[in-house]
């Protein structure tokens, strides 16, 4: 059956600072693409109250502004840390969607040192002529964007 882990007072949730829990909650929302309005759901509020009555969920505005900015900065800094002083490869992939009559190019950086990939930019080239000038422009833009990441 279900294992009883004891009362909530013994839970680590009570020992976590609010800011730390807010960041974990924000990452859950962002990485799982959960709409911000869900943070106002009575069902989520009831769940959180059962887990830790002392914790109060952040509002939708705080989640979408303050916490999004904090997590974004954390991700950018982590990416810089992984890319600094390491060998990287720029990967460019393109595809056509005949049904939608669209063409796209996506550029990523692959860090061979720690086997991590990072999205750099995507380009909608629908209606543009696929030639060396266009590809050279995309490569140069992407290289410059990649340098800004570091």
From TrEMBL:
GO molecular function: zinc ion binding
Domain of life from the UniProt record: Eukaryota
One Pfam family hit: DUF659
Keyword annotations of the record: Metal-binding, Nucleus, Zinc, Zinc-finger
Record-linked InterPro entries: DUF659, ZnF_BED_domain_contain
Domain annotation DUF659: ranges: 60-143
Main location: nucleus
Subcellular location: Nucleus
GO CC annotation terms, alphabetical: nucleus
Name of the featured protein: DUF659 domain-containing protein
């Amino acid at each position: 059956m279900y294992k009883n882990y004891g009362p909530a007072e013994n839970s680590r949730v009570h020992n976590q600072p609010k800011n730390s829990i807010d960041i974990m909650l924000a990452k859950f929302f962002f990485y799982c693409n959960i709409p911000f309005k869900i943070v106002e759901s009575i069902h989520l509020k009831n769940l959180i109250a059962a887990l830790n009555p002392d914790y109060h969920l952040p509002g939708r505005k705080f989640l979408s502004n303050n916490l999004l900015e904090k997590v974004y900065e954390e991700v950018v800094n982590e990416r810089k840390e992984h890319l600094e002083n390491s060998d990287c490869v720029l990967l460019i992939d393109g595809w056509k969607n005949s049904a939608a009559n669209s063409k796209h190019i996506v550029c990523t950086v692959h860090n061979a040192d720690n086997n991590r990939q990072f999205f750099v930019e995507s380009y909608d080239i629908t209606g543009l002529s696929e030639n060396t000038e266009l590809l050279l422009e995309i490569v140069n833009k992407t290289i410059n964007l990649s340098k800004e990441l570091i």
